[in-house]
Amino acid sequence: MKTHLTHARVVLADEVLEDASVLIEDGIIRAINPESGNGAREISLQGQWLMPGMIDLHCDAIEKECEPRAKVLFPHDFACLNIDRRNAAAGITTPFHALSFAHAEWGVRNNDTACDLVRALKTFKRQELVDNRIHVRYEITDITAMPYITTLLDEGGVDLLSIMDHTPGQGQFRHLETYVAYMMGNHGSSREAAEMIAEEKRQARETADDRVLAVMGQARRLGVPTASHDDDDHARVTTMKELGASMSEFPINLETAQAAHAAGLSTIFGAPNVMRGSSQSGNIRAIDAIRAGVADCLCADYAPATMLAAVEALHMREGFPLHEAVRLVSKGPAHAAGLTDRGEIAVGKRADLISVAQPGAHAAISATWVGGRQVFAAHYPQ
User: Where exactly are the transmembrane stretches of this chain (predicted)?
Assistant: First the structure.
């Protein structure tokens, strides 16, 4: 099947082509600005942006599909169906669903539940709209998670592994009160329960190094890319690099982001941070890292729709060239995850594409193609 997308602002890796076209055949981009469509079905995009499908390395929005309210759990196959549709509508063609193995923190962040959800997502691949992948987040203070994660790694159920340490006093939660407020506000925990979990984390942290060494080694042997999380200084970056990490998620200040970038780690910041103009945790503003040239990727974090919103904000509000903004949600993440077949509009790449309309004050996805197959369409009033 051949499709010819015409009259588009085509966003390439290093420039934007005006009134251009892209020819798709058998799920692959066959030509850019061909002389003819060679009998392909023509779709005029009427001046809309045509971008690579976005690649989201870290989003835990699936947790809210599973547990929309504290202790209210929905069936996993229902959650998979709905997050798949949300990503298609958000223009995210390769989402990495971030699932936390942090036993007893709260509902979905329970080892049995998280493990079942990983397997549910793998089963769901037979009917998916987008290319759903698994990002396993290991909370190193959880002693009980190791058997689950090592089994999933051996089963081929992990596409990305990140190492987290949310012990209060460092990283994201530099103060106990910040952690307690997070647990109470986000997860409906009581103060007493939050303080008890914090103390358990402190104690378990003392024996975490051997666990980290073991799980990082296993991931490395299996060729699974790995990331550090909430790096807060140069020493932490150096340690994670030596353990084999290739990404640094949410470095908390500019100095650490610079250290990670200099060490060759792909740095990942939150798209909601860009859209809002600040971090919810009071850490570095993503825009400052982008301006400093030490941001390689944006991720949805917890809100898939913010990926496109961040691109729009960078281009329209901050004045970045469109192709540079788009690179942060496409080619940058593809490079970080070792996905050489996607992430840009180029001949021979997968036809993972999105068209972007401007129906009102905000840009919106009008169509999504995954491997050349249209999986989402919206027709906005003129």
Answer: none
